Amino acid sequence: MFSDMTEEMVRTAVRGWYDPFKSQKLGNVCVVKGCGLPAAYHLCPEHAVPGAVVEVLPGKPNVIGHWFAERKGNHFLLLLNDWSLGAVFGNRKQFEKRLISEGYTRVCLMPTVEDVFIVFRRYPRVIHTPYESLNDLEADRDC
Ligand SMILES: [Zn+2]
Question: Do residues 10 and 55 make contact, with C-beta atoms less than 8 angstroms apart?
Fold first, then answer.
């Protein structure tokens, strides 16, 4: 399937690393269905995961979680924003179950930015990519 979209460079401002256990900022509401607790970004401290705070649209920051995983001999850093984690999967455990059901092993959420740098040093060919469901990718091939 070909897209008529042209490749564009997306500039993002990385504002730092979010640690839900250390954050005191709670100005939003958690997007997990039925939760509704105060949230720093899109998830309350119970549902939130650590990650890079990234602002793709001005004033609309997301927390991008980084999951290390292996699949078919390749190493990955899979990225998922906090809105998708909460609204699509409900919580970290459900997302990690999905990854395992798609054949990923050694699934591990990166707790700090230092851990991300360790992965880059240890696995120089790591595939650093936004998470896309393998089911969706296979459906695209049928088009
Ligand atoms: Zn919540």
Answer: no
Q: Three-class SS string for 49-96?
A: CCEEEEEEECCEEEEEEEEEEEECCEEEEEEEEHHHHHHHHCCHHHHH
The string of pLDDT tens digits covering residues 56-92 is 778 888 999 999 999 999 999 999 999 999 999 999 9
**What pTM was computed for the model?**
0.85
% helix / strand / coil in the chain, to the nearest 5? 25, 30, 45
Q: Is 119 strand, coil or helix?
A: helix
Ligand 1 mean position, distance from CA 16 (Å): 22
Q: Write out pLDDT tens, residues 81-122.
A: 999 999 999 999 999 999 999 999 999 999 999 999 999 999
CA of 111 to the centre of ligand 1 (A): 19
d(CA 4, ligand 1 centre) in Å: 38
Taking residue 62's Cβ as centre, other Cβ atoms within 10 Å add up to: 22
Shortest CA distance to 72 belongs to which of 109, 103, 107, 106?
A: 103
Residue ranges of the domains in the chain?
A: 13-141
- Cα(7) to ligand 1 centroid in Å equals 35
